[in-house]
Amino acid sequence: MNPTTESKRPNILLITVDQMRFDCLSILGHPVVETPNLDELARTGVRFDHAYSATPTCVPARAAIFTGLKQASHGRVGYQERVPWNYETTLPGELAKSGYHTQCVGKMHVYPARSLLGFHNVVLHDGYLHYSRNKHNVPVQEHYDETDDYLQWLRGQVPGADLLDLGLDCNASTVARPWTLPEHLHPTNWTVSQSIDFLRRRDPSKPFFLWMSFVRPHSPLDPPQTYFDLYKDADFPEPIVGDWAMKEDPGLNGLNPVTSQGIVPKRRMKMAMAAYYALITHIDHQIGRFLQVLSEYGERENTIIMFTSDHGELLGDHHLFRKSLPYEGSAHIPFIVNDLGGHLDLAEGSVVSEVIELRDIMPSLLDAASTEIPGSIEGESIWKLARANKELLENPWREYLHGEHEQGINSNHWVTNGEEKYIWYSQTGEEQFFDLVADPSELHNVIHHPELQERIQYWRSALVHELKGREEGYVQDESLVVGRKPVAVLSHMRPE
Q1: Which residue, 225, 117, 115, 128, is CA-closest to 178?
Q2: Which of these is catalytic: 58, 311, 343, 405?
Q3: Which ranges carry the Sulfatase N-terminal domain (predicted)?
Q4: What is the pLDDT of residues 306-331, one digit of tens each?
Q5: Is the pTM of this model over 0.85?
């Protein structure tokens, strides 16, 4: 294509946040959190109400975004770091080959950390990753001090600064406190500042693909003081607790500042919720800042915007925290598309109910860029769901989604169509079934309800179909087998 033709293709802005719950949007009627800029993107765009992260932790979720593959194909069915990302076909790579100027700012969470994965350039901030900070067992060239651009920049502004200065843990901490440095030094602001700088130095003869990838609201729970003050005295609703959930915490696990489950002291829980919601509003305002500059460059109406999260955060639901589990707070994610210029002929202000997944991002964005979708891609373009004439779909949308996560004794598999959900814990054999229409908060496990056994058997059979032939041996004689050893990375992706 010549430069004139290239410049008419729409820019693509992919905005991802880390660990944001699906329900933390004020347009959904959340009783506390405020997200005015995301609300506007939804109001003038399309909201996908049943978007999920099939393997809801950072590494496998990003593998789905990069490759457009199911977890069994991209090979990451749990969380394991330091496994090389040897994918020949990637979202930024395909866009770069088709004439886009490609840039990532913020979190990649790939290995090696400085892999470009098809981008022309990466300005990297992965947050605090344990493997890259453990001085006793990581090569110098892989250490955080060598790989992270934000830390280098921060130390140029504040000599000696480090990510541990606030004394907060980087992963699922329930301990919160405000950011102590000036707000413009916060990694959320830095991500937007670097993204704005990309607008200045991009190749103007090409359309651009910018992945603006925030580390927050993932812990540390460190919002700037102004945002923390918005929420610290708010009247928060209690976390939802199902009748199947733990009722007591005899081991006092909730006192652990980096707990994955337990009954957390009420004051600390309130502070954690205040900081979590504050981080979301902080991100929302910074997204508004970027959109304003995008308009100043005259590119707002020529830019297709997609917003989502890599996974959710249980935030005390059922006395659980973090992600990786199959419940709505963990696996259900926000997903908004905005096309102010009308490139895709979407039904403005509509809400899509079909189940979509992170693997659908790659084919959707390639489709939006008029770029050929490789035949190996297993996701599907979502635009046909969001058009006014979607009843004219040539083929039915997917019947259900299969999700999973290796997590030791809590290793799990689940299938859902957004209205029902069946869960199987592979190491214990425990089963759960939720009617998400009547019980969206998953308060009642109705696996033994006599009138639902036919539906439950349907979903059990669907999971058998998904797991048949897997190397772990989860299926034998058309039945699920309990106790097979789970793995985080399937053999075709493990280094020899």
Answers
A1: 225
A2: 58
A3: 10-369
A4: 999 999 999 999 999 999 999 999 99
A5: yes
